[in-house]
Design goal:
Pfam families: Spo0M (PF07070). Strand 5 and strand 6 form a beta hairpin. 10% of the residues lie in helices and 43% in strands. It is mainly beta.
Length: 308
């Protein structure tokens, strides 16, 4: 599948811009191949630069402020040149996606209303800018896929997904935004907590999983929040029993959460066993279902998993 975004022709310069992606389906850490085509009208068009940016709608740190479209990553693919009158100029690219690129597709289904796109910015003389937008579909890495599938198997139900324009304290975060996945809590874990948010922070070696837990009492307004962090490596992920791994994370996080709120009478520890009605989803191999959007290299490094 190929997708093309086309700009309106500029009345001032006669320049039109179109961006075509060879395959809009991709994963974090891969390269996104495509081509920018610039077409001039009846006069020469001096171009200062051509840039590609990843954009998405994100929530600001201030919860009272409205959501807005933000550009969270940008790459320059062309410098100064001239597109002659009546001629075209093509720029081929293979943009490397950041490892922290938000996931927008899981199990072949879009994650709620979360969308991201590739925006082309063409700066021309005089001070004018034109561009085209094309959507991209970001599938999870195998490690991310395993965690998401395990939560689904354990009975957690996704209720909301969004981007937040903020930095996470104490985390080696490269992008100015991070993705949060909110879940309805599975019955086994519903006593000690009422809300669960999942955050991935990814790099070439592995994945940090942040579990943000909350326990609210609607009648009293009492609330206690806690964040637990766990680290896994991309290498060897297919050999893990992911339902057991994620269940262990949840138990450790909930017990830590309960200990921190030990003065509250509603705090409780998890002591029961997790029972699942079906086996976890089969692991997704690198490159599966992506139509060759990029190579499988670079999804490795590190050693065995650990928790912190």
């Amino acid at each position: 599948m190929r997708l093309t975004g086309v700009s309106r022709e500029s009345g001032a310069t006669g320049l039109s811009v179109s961006t075509t992606l060879t395959n809009p389906s991709t994963r974090p850490g891969l390269r996104l191949p495509g081509r920018v085509m610039l077409s001039a009208g009846s006069q020469d068009v001096p171009v200062r630069h051509v840039r590609l940016g990843l954009v998405a709608t994100a929530e600001p740190e201030d919860p009272r402020a409205p959501r807005s479209l933000v550009q969270y990553h940008q790459v320059t693919v062309g410098g100064r040149f001239v597109v002659p009158a009546g001629r075209r100029r093509a720029i081929d690219f293979a943009v490397p996606l950041p490892w922290e690129t938000p996931v927008t597709i899981f199990g072949g289904v879009p994650l709620m209303s979360l969308r991201t796109g590739l925006r082309t910015e063409v700066s021309v003389d005089p001070e004018r800018e034109q561009g085209a937008m094309v959507p991209i579909f970001v599938h999870p890495l195998p490690t991310q896929q395993h965690v998401l599938a395990a939560l689904d198997t354990l009975g957690f139900v996704l209720r909301q997904v969004g981007l937040v324009s903020s930095r996470l304290p104490g985390v080696a975060q490269s992008l100015p935004v991070h993705e949060r996945l909110g879940y309805w809590v599975a019955p086994l874990y519903a006593g000690p907590i009422t809300e669960l948010e999942l955050i991935f922070v990814t790099n070439s070696a592995g994945l940090e999983v942040l579990l943000w837990m909350d326990r609210r009492l609607s009648l009293t307004g009492i609330s206690h929040q806690s964040i637990s962090r766990f680290r896994i490596w991309h290498t060897g992920a297919d050999q893990q029993d992911w339902v057991s791994v994620v269940d262990g994370w949840l138990r450790a996080a909930i017990n830590r959460h309960a200990a921190a709120a030990s003065n509250a009478h509603w705090s409780a520890r998890i002591t029961e066993s997790a029972h699942v009605s079906r086996p976890p989803d089969a692991p997704v191999r690198p490159g599966y279902g992506l139509g060759g959007a990029g190579g499988g290299g670079g999804i490795g490094g590190g050693g065995g998993g650990d928790g912190t």
